[in-house]
Every structure is written in C-alpha cells, then in structure tokens.
Amino acid sequence: MNEIPPHPTRANDIWISVTMIGVMLSIGVGVISVNKTLTDAAVTQEARFIRLEETVKSLREDLNEYRQTQTRNNNNERYSNGDATK
User: Which of left, alpha, beta for 82 (phi over 0: left; psi -120 to 50: alpha)?
Assistant: First the structure.
C-alpha cells in the first residue's frame, strides 16, 4: 500500500508557531496588565469617594450643630431683656 510520508517541518512553520505563541503571550500579559491598572484605578477612586463621603458627613454634622447653636442663641436673645412677651 502507498503510505503518505509525514509532512516535513519547514523552518517557516517553526517561526510561524513561535511567532503565534509570542503574540498570544503578549496579548495575555497585556490583558493582565490592563486588568491590574483598572483595578488599581477603581480602588483609588473608591478611596476618594469614601473620603468625600466622610467629609460631606462631617460638614452636615457641623452645619446641624451650627443651626442648633443659632436657634438656641435666638431663643435666648428673645428673653434676655426680661420681657417675656417677645
């Protein structure tokens, strides 16, 4: 019977395979790098938002405290001259 001899490996075939493996590795490393960069950016933004939320919360508390102080001062001024009818 006639057997077909195996395909001889040519130098071009090896370089094509090596190049394809190199391209695939480069793409994999690039994807991992972009993923890491985006994750770091997301963590940084989250930390900024948390600090901003804490600042806003603190300012709201300060504003409420200021309003309460102003209300108390206004109530005390009404009766400071001894006239309870004001």
Answer: left
